[in-house]
Amino acid sequence: MKKIVIFFIGIGLCVSVHAQKQNQAYLDYIEQWRETAVQQQTDYGVPASITMAQALLESAAGQSELALNARNHFGIKCTSEWFGGVYYYDDDSQGECFRMYADAGESFKDHSLFLQRPRYATCFEIAVEDYEGWAYRLKACGYATDPSYAQKLIKLVEDYRLDTLVNGSRVTVTDKSAVANDSVPQSNDTVAHRPLKATLVMVTEPIRVFTQEPEPPYVVPPTAREEKRTFLLTHPSKKCNGLKYVEAREGDTYANVAFRLNVRERQLREWNDALGRDLAVGDRIYMSAKKKTVPAEKGLMWVHPGETLWAICQREGIQMQQVQKLNEFPVDLRTFRTRQQIYLNKPPKEKK
After folding, report:
1. How far are the Cα atoms of 227, 262, 283, 328 from residue 254, in angstroms, in the given order?
2. Maximum distance among all alpha carbons in the chain?
3. pLDDT, tens digit, 9 for 90 and up, residues 214-270
4. What are phi and psi of 98, to 5 degrees?
5. Across residues 299-328, what is the average pLDDT?
6. N or C: the chain end with fewer CB closer than 10 Å?
7. Residue pair 243/319 in contact by the 8 Å Cβ criterion
8. What are the phi and psi torsion angles at 243 (to 5°)?
9. How many other β-carbons are positioned within 10 Å of the β-carbon of residue 51?
10. What is the C-alpha to C-alpha distance for residues 104 and 83, in angstroms, rounded to an integer?
11. Model pLDDT for residues 150-169, shown as the tens digit of each residue
């Protein structure tokens, strides 16, 4: 009889010890993001259990520096195709570049998209119910450098019954006093014992079904020629010094005009001496390089105080650099302060 009593006391102590490993911060995090994790499985085929386990491990249940400051819950670093926000953080090396997100939900979606890379293609050969297979395959594909990464994921799945997320279940602890209230456990906890199933109660809830808005119908985009023709209907071309130009209208920028003319923005700016300059309504936009000379009768002209060199060159269709060279103007000359004559062509040679 004493042996039987001692046996049950031992079981009770074991249950109590394992129950204490249930962390309230982890339970709250699971409840907050469980539907998002399930949605990733529905949309991208990544097991909800693995998504949640990785999020818990990588973000310390949302309390890591990356999670708090960059909304990055999966430790995904910058790659060549990433054009979003960045956050620099000391990880394997000092000052490594990590992706930054507008919100944590975006981080969950990007994690699913990240796993669509060819590097992780073999993961999707494993059934979504096989969380152990997924954990070991992710480690084999190089998701993390930690040699115990797979075991840590498996432990989280089994400690918090993450394999039941898709069934609409929530994990709770029978004895609330058994829930740890101390700090969130670190991701390098050793994999030692697993809690007894007897300490957990499954509370079923109906699965919420999310329907996505249908994609808009496909519309054939206009060709470059059609885009340019449409642009010239609203911006009739004119001529100056033998060159075609249009006048800027409200909302025009060098970027969108260049796109509609099917030329590079920098090229369009260079043609118009407009590097570092914004486009204003009424400005002339030449559709080819301006000339180095003007007709002979305009070779010498008067300018007035307040006129700018750029405006004169746009009005006459001549390169600003050429006018600076002909008149030996300093490169920083922008506005004339006095009434004076300037050359737009080489001055005629004086007869001897």
Report:
1. 15, 12, 11, 29
2. 135
3. 777 888 888 999 999 999 999 999 999 999 999 999 999 999 999 999 999 999 999
4. -120, 155
5. 94
6. C
7. no
8. -115, 145
9. 28
10. 17
11. 999 999 999 999 999 987 54
Alpha helix positions (H), 93-240: 104-114, 131-140, 149-159, 224-234
The C-alpha atoms of residue 159 and residue 147 are separated, in whole angstroms, by 20
Q: How far is CA 14 from CA 5, 6, 284, 314, in A?
A: 14, 12, 83, 86
Rounded-to-integer distance, Cα 119 and Cα 141, Å: 7
Q: Are 23 and 94 in contact (CB under 8 A)?
A: no
Q: Is 304 left (phi over 0), alpha (psi -120 to 50) or beta?
A: beta
pLDDT of residue 174: 37
For residues 323 and 346, give the distance between their C-alpha atoms in angstroms, rounded to a whole number.
10
- C-beta separation of 258 from 265 below 8 A: yes
pLDDT tens, 304-318? 999 999 999 999 999
Report how far residue 207's alpha carbon sits from residue 288's, in angstroms, rounded to the nearest whole number. Answer: 62
Rg (CA), the chain: 34
Q: Is the pLDDT of residue 171 over 60?
A: no
Kindly report whether the global pTM for this prediction surpasses the value 0.70: no
Tell me the two tokens of residue 206.
Answer: 């109906």
Return phi, psi of residue 103, to 5°: -155, 165
Length reported for the chain: 352
Least Cα distance to 66 among 33, 37, 32, 100 occurs for 100
Q: Does the structure show a pLDDT above 70 at 187?
A: no
β-pair partners for 98 = 77, 87
Q: How far apart are CA 41 and CA 44, in angstroms?
A: 5
Buried b (16+ CB within 10 A) or exposed e, 159-196: bbbbbbbbeebbbebeeeebbbeeebbebeeeeeeebe
The answer to whether the CB of 45 falls within 8 A of the CB of 132 is: no
Least confident of 72-81, 187-196, 199-208: 187-196
